[in-house]
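Render this sequence as a predicted structure.
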Amino acid sequence: MTSGKRMMHKTDRHNAIMTSLRQAGSTSIAELVQKLGVSDETVRRDVKVLESRGLLERVHGAVILADHGGEAAFQKRMAQNAAIKRAIAEAAAREVEDGDAVMIDSGTTTAYVARALLARRNLFVVTNGTEIARTLAGGAGNRVHLPGGEMRSDDYAVFGETSQAFIRNFRAKIAILSIGAIHHDGGYMDFHLQETEMARAMIRQSSKVIVVADRSKFHTQAPVSVCGFADVGTLVTERTPPTPILRQLEQHEVRVIEVGSAPAAQAAPEAG
């Protein structure tokens, strides 16, 4: 006896997997099982076929588009700690209201924030991340502004004096920033001067600053200082910061939003 629900043809499943990856950047086997309505074994076979064709890769328990240059490197970072980043992003997006003016810097966690912000309407967005701009340009009533400047091949983000000058044309209610590291002595830090300069420009032009960071950022230092604890009003993370950092946050009255983490999620160190 056959069931009332007809199984998707293999070609249709392959197309659906690739469409999902192009839209979301990364996915998991479990997510594909739910989306396609087939068994775990069927999805794994489909993924293996697509991987053999050079169309996708399996990394960190996730599936991403295959490495065809800088975009794939960015997608690999998107796949790292993905569940945690999504939870952080959703919490940060709840701080934004319809019609807000928002500045968002480039980064993997902020790319997830952009996706979460599709639930909002009529946003005025300024960002140096082309992935973020592309995502939010499709939102209801959004107006998205992307600066000129030098485009980085790794993630296609835009940097340089031209882009910083562009940022200075705007005022925003909220800046949502990614970060490389948080240290009790150094405050908020990053690994690249150009990213730091962009973050500083957005901080200066925004009334409120939110930093999104998973707990791996508490256990490293970076060479470039972005700003001190007093310059950030809200930190969104999935775990209580270590005591030395927590003391600094409390001293400077920084609001900490803890989203919790999935039992199986482990935040691996990440430089980008």
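Summary. Residues 1-5, 262-269 have pLDDT under 50 and may be disordered. The two ends are 53 Å apart (CA to CA).
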